Amino acid sequence: MDIADQTFVKKINQKLLLKEILTNAPISRAKLSEITGLNKSTVSSQVSTLMKENLVYEIGQGESSGGRRPVLLMFNKHAGYSIGIDVGVDYVNGILTDLEGSLILHQQLMLKSSSPEDTKSTLIELIQHFISQIPSSPYGLVGIGICIPGLVDENERIVFTPHSKWKNFDLKTSLKKTFHVPVLIENEANAGAYGEKIFGAAKHYDHLIYASIGTGIGIGIIIKRHLYRGAYGFSGEMGHMTIDFNGPTCSCGNRGCWELYASEKALFQSLQSNNQKVSYQEIEQLAKLNDMKTLNALRNFGFYLGVGLTNVLHTFNPQAVILRNKVIESHPMVLNVIKNEVSSRMYSQFSTHIELLPSSLGQHAPALGMTSLVIENFLNDVTKPQ
Ligand SMILES: [Zn+2]
Is the domain 3-75 a CATH 3.60.40.10 member? Predict the structure, then answer.
C-alpha cells in the first residue's frame, strides 16, 4: 500500500472511531475495538490523533472486566461552535451551539425589508454578534448554516423564493468571503426535517416527512436517515400539489394547489373579516370561547391538511410525519381532525403504522437542523483524507 492509501485508511478509521465516540461516549478503547472490529493498536494510535486534534479527551475510569480499569473517552463538544439561522419572511432566527448541538445563544432579529441586501446585512449583524460571544476554543466557529423558504439548487444557490421574490441569490459565496468559514445554504423544510431527525420528535425514525406549514407548505423528506433533496435540490415542493383541478390559480401557475387551502396563510385569511387581520392571540382566545367561526376554520385547516397529507403518505410510506405549525402545536384538536381525515381516506394497512406528531422543537427546528449539518460537515472535513 502506498503512503496516500495508508493516509486514506487512517482517516477512514478515525472517522469511524469518532462516530462511535460521538454515539457511545463515555467509551473505552477496548470497547471501541470490539464495536468497530479495528485492532487495539489501530484504535490506540487513531484515538491519540483525535486527542491531539482536540476532538476527544479522556475522563476518569470505567467498569473493569478484570484487570486494570479502562480510561474512558469523551467527545470534546467545546472544541468548536456552530451557527444555524432560519430566515423567515420578516425575521431571522439564529442559534449558536456547541459541537453536540446544545444551545449556547438564541437571537431573533426582525428584517427591515425582505430584499436580499437587507436580509444579508441583518444576517451579518447577527453572525457578528454570535462570533463575539464564542468562548475561546481550538477550532472557534466551524461554520454557518442558513435555511430559507425557497428553492436552493445542488450548488446551494438560492434560485427562487416565492414570498420575498429573490432570484439567483448567491448568499453562500458572499458570506464565505465575509467570514472565512464554510457556509451551508438549505431549504427551510429540509433543515427542519433534519433538526427533528437529529434532536427532536423524529429521533427514532429512519423514514420521515416533515411538513412546514406557514405562508406556504414545504415538505422535508428523510429516507434511510438521509435528507432526500432530489436531483437538483427541489424535492418536497408539495404545497403546489393539485388538490382541486378546477381550483383558484396559484402564484406558481398551477390551479388548486394544496397550500391555497391548507397553509397557515389560508387559515388566517379564512378568519379575517373586512380585511381585518387576525392574530395568533385572537385565535387562541376565540377558540377558548368556543367561537363557532374559529372552531370551523380550525376544523377546515385540519381537513385540508389531512386531504393533502393522504397523498404525501401514499407516496412516501414514512414511519412518521412531523407537523411544524404553531396553531397545530397548541391545538390538539387540529391534529385529531388531520388524523381522522387521513385514516378515513387510506387503507388501514397504510395509516395505522404512521405516527402524526407536532414538532417538538417548534420554531428552532430549522436552525437546529442547520447547526447539525454544519457540525457534520466540520467532522467530515477534519477526518477527510488530504
Ligand atoms: Zn402553486
Answer: no
